Amino acid sequence: MSNNVIILIARILLSFMFILSGFMKLTDPAGTAGMIAGAGLPAATLLAYVAGLFELLAGLAVLTGFQVRIAGWLLAAFCVFTGIAFHLPYASGTELVNILNQIMVMKNITLAGAYILLATVGAGAYSLDARRGAYAAA
Prior knowledge:
globular, transmembrane, DoxX-like_oxidoreductase, DoxX
């Protein structure tokens, strides 16, 4: 299997969570707005919609391979920020909540690594970036 096929598969897998999560935030922002308000940030509902729009558009960019280097860096920063802002410290609730928060921080940091790698290697040959000449296919 060629590296370009592997990059395409990775892009599909890495896009799924943000496309779905962004869509859910845009159609029902209440839960996200509650988390944002709970973290002490202002304009929670507005920020929930902004986060949903960002996640949906960034996920679609990764899926289609459009501006993947930029999207990768932005998603990496988003993952680190949300992991720290919304899931630390671990000791903030019941034992189950603490365990889930620890898992979420690890997931977010791990995803940040994947998005940094994607930003570094680019979208691959099977992408909009390649079609418009922004990616030198191997």
